[in-house]
What does this fold into?
Amino acid sequence: MSPPVAPRGAVGRLAGALLAGLLLAACSSLPPTPPPARDSLHDFALEARFALRVNQPDAAPQTAGGRLSWEHRAGNNRILIANPLGIGIAEIDTTPALSRLRTTDGTVRESADADELMEAATGERLPVLRLPAWLLGRGDATSLIERDDQQRPTRLAEAGWQIDYAYDDTAADALPARVTLRRADAIELRLRIEEWREIP
It folds into this structure.
């Protein structure tokens, strides 16, 4: 006796399910996307952990830490600040003309000074608009940049700030995995960058 023939719709669904399974298996075996090259990177997104330490005269140091998501595109920035558990605390959007801060309590503040909004979010004025270039080891005409044997930036000094870089990768065009920003003995911001992504 011949086996029963499945309806055409059932065969199509089964074939589709098998094809989807094969595609998923192929995707899962693909190698991870390599990080972008530092010198050619312009627009980017990153995920990082941060630790902020502020020293004040005649007072104990103030410390804070958490997670940072940063998207830099066409001169604009979107910065999400979260506590160590990943719960959002504040979001800052910057443009060359106007910046906006949103906090979890629903407060929205706007200012032409992005650093002022960063101060409202973290308690300290941090150079928001310079940070994308500094993260990549790029300075302005006044900067002093030290490099290692592979010509990767290891230290940058600009506008009273010192930025130090460390790498997990030995490639000459690797992106930094750890960035430490200091202003004299007053502020230290440490970033442990977990992921870099290029934005096309």
Remarks:
- Residues 108 and 199 are 27 Å apart (CA to CA).
- The domain at 44-198 is CATH 2.50.20.10 (outer membrane lipoprotein receptor (LolB), chain A).
- The two ends are 60 Å apart (CA to CA).
- The chain has one domain: 44-198.
